[in-house]
Amino acid sequence: MLVAVVVFAVAVAGYIAARPNQYAATAQVLIKPYSTAKFTEPVFTTAQVDTQVAVMQSLAVVAPVVTKLHLPESPATLQKSISAAPVSDTSIIAVTVSRPNPTEAARIANALAESYLNFRSSGLPAKATGSFAVIVGHAQPPDHPAGTSPVFGGVAGALLGLILGCAAALIASRRDPSLPDEAAVAAATTGMPMLGRIPRAKSKSGRPALLERPTSRESLAYRFLTSSIRALGPDRPGRSGTATAAPKIVLIVSAGPREGRTSVAANVALAAADAGQRVLLCDADLTKPGLTELLGEGSDVTLERLLRRDVPVDLGLLARPVPHLYLLGAEETATSQASLLGNGRFHDLIASFAGLVSLVVVDTSPLLSSADMLELVPQADVVLFVVRERVSTESDIASASELVRQVGGTVDGIVLTGSSSSMGAQRSTRRRASSPKARTSPSEPAEAGSSSPPTQVSKR
Description:
Elements: H1 2-18, E1 23-31, H2 46-56, H3 59-69, H4 75-79, E2 82-86, E3 92-99, H5 102-122, E4 133-137, H6 150-175, H7 182-188, E5 194-199, H8 209-212, H9 217-230, E6 248-254, H10 261-274, E7 279-283, H11 291-295, H12 303-307, E8 325-328, H13 337-341, H14 345-351, E9 359-363, E10 382-388, H15 394-406, E11 413-419, H16 456-459
Parallel strand pairs: 5-11, 6-9, 6-10, 7-8, 7-9, 10-11
Antiparallel strand pairs: 1-3, 1-4, 2-3
């Protein structure tokens, strides 16, 4: 709407300012009917007045003016600058001429009035008496140009732009199925707790907020979200009957692309590492991996190679963007993700990190474009569903949630990205009683399910 208002205001004002000035001069002629009576009342019907208006602008009247004044244009061209109309409820015709020169405009208007008188005189009936047309107002050179001023044109253009902008916004809002605000997101995700609201990023660099803007509202929102994640998911004993607790697996999912899933995964891992946890950040998006590029770190050890047992499990071989954080990147592959991640292979791989890391954050492919990702849902301890204002749609959220339910998974919470809310932190919500993973409420203290001692995050 704002763009439409500005564009139309500038365009109309600019068009009017760019046009050459036109001066309008008007002469008035009183017309009377033919009559043999000397004192006949000069009354014309409407049709008769309209006829004389047409005569006033006809070539028969205009052509003599061009010849008399030696104008450098044809009678047809001069006609375009002439307008005639009756004065309201009278037998007077006002003929107006618009020209760039005010003196020339007045001269032509007076010449037209005289030419009309001559034309009518030449067609008088034999018995007609008296004068049947008279000039009652001679044209004078105007002092100011006629037409609309640029300022008035700009205001009119702004009003027109406002009307068209409102119409366009209304049409766009009805055609755009995306969720416009948090209220719409809450309605589309009924029954799922809102664990975090991530405000819109002010920086366009694409770098994680925890690295580039550690004290921003966006970073604070990620720290709150990470504290809430600590309270989610059961504590499981390690596989192979060991007493060492297996790392908690946090799966970051979304229905489609461009919803902020990769950024959420990176920032949650960075916040947890900053809080003192040993974190493995894993890129399981084998169709379009992005964590290595986002963090600017990488190594020859990738998720595919570990799943194929091409390299040994060794944290020392992984990239370390920050202390306590290990990055396990991925490469684009044509191999089905289900064949690599399914049958518990991914879970077994993560279990091999028991005692080395306490938290594994996994970035995934969009659920609706890569159903293979569903293999990871039953293997995760916590599933976070990322939704973005003005991008996510209600139908996509419903479809992705149904896919998660069909494989026996549960969405532990919603993370709203691109939030227009004034607060970046999460809103306290109650976990569903039916969820088998709900050990504590996200609104309870973060230490309730934490495996690490309190850190400086609590002070912040």
